[in-house]
Every structure is written in structure tokens, then in C-alpha cells.
Amino acid sequence: MAGDDKTLESEEPVFELLDEAECLRLIGAGGVGRIGYTGRFGPTILPINYALHEGTILFRTGQHSPLGEDLRTGIEHAESKVAFEIDETSPATREGWSILIQGAAHLVDSEAERASIEQSGVEPWAGGEKELFVRVRPSRITGRRIRRAGPPAAG
Question: Is residue 125 part of a domain?
């Protein structure tokens, strides 16, 4: 609608930094995010579905997938530095938020840890075998939101 365009143009965008608690609240329901890491062929970013469980990001991947192969180093308890990004945007209103989690990803190989993770309910959306469980332990969580300011208060 023409009136909606004028409203968007007249309302100034507001940029907000989000604290860790708000970031975790926004991503708490799980969904789809993107994992970034340095793989065999250089910087790699892939979409994955995830669950937030006990303050960590959980997802599943296949043993022979590019991600699975890149994360498997052959070194027991090895961790890879990763970035994980989740966002939600509305092009119509030009609003949205973005959360960046940086930390270490490791393959879950102990039975006790795997049992705990299986309770999270994380299930892969893509077909095929996804037998590897991966946990990202955040070392840094940052977020930002862009929203439209409401009309100025009268008086």
C-alpha cells in the first residue's frame, strides 16, 4: 500500500545491540542457521537445522558429508573454531535481527553426552544418514536488531 511505504520512509531505523539473554531467547526455539568454518577448500558456510540445548547449539550431519569430513580430524576430542549465525528478517518492514555465535564445535562421541543430546530432539531436515551429532560450545554470543522507530510522541 502506498501509505505503508510512506510510513517506512518516515520512521527512522533503530539499531540495537542485544545482550546474551535476548540472543538466547530469540534462538531458543531452534530452526535453521548457517555454520561457517574453514574447510578443506577454504571458508565454508552451510545451512543447517539446529536445536539450542543446555546453552549449546546442536545439529546432526552425515559421516561422509563435506561438513562431517571437515570436522573429523582423527584427533580425539578435537574441536574446530566455528561461527554460527541465525537471523530473522522482514523485507516488507525492513526489520529483523541477527545472532552470531562463535565457539568450538566438536563431534559428540561419548555415550553419556550423546544420550543427553538425543533428548534435545534435534532431527535433520535433509534426507540421508545423519549419524554424527555436533555440539557448538559458545565462547561469544552477540546480536543486533534493526527495527523502525514509532512515530514521535505528541506534546
Answer: yes
Residues facing 32 on adjacent strands = 49
| Any domain includes 154 | no
Question: Is there a contact between 16 and 78 (Cβ–Cβ < 8 Å)?
Answer: no
Q: How far is CA 95 from CA 39, 52, 79, 141, in A?
A: 32, 24, 35, 20
Q: Tell me which of 1-5, 43-47, 111-115, 128-132 is least confident.
A: 1-5
Whether 144 has a pLDDT exceeding 60, the answer reads yes
User: 73: which residues sit within 8 A by CB, 6+ positions away?
Assistant: 80
Number of domains, the chain: 1
From the CB of residue 148, how many other CB atoms can be counted at a distance below 10 Å?
A: 15
As a whole number of angstroms, the distance between CA 145 and CA 74 comes to: 40
Condensed to tens digits (0 to 9), the pLDDT of residues 101-112 reads 999 998 888 888
Task: Identify whether 153 is part of a domain.
Answer: no
By three-state DSSP, how is residue 116 classified? Answer: helix
| Residue 50 located in a structural domain | yes
Beta bridge partners of 8: none
3-class DSSP state of 87: strand
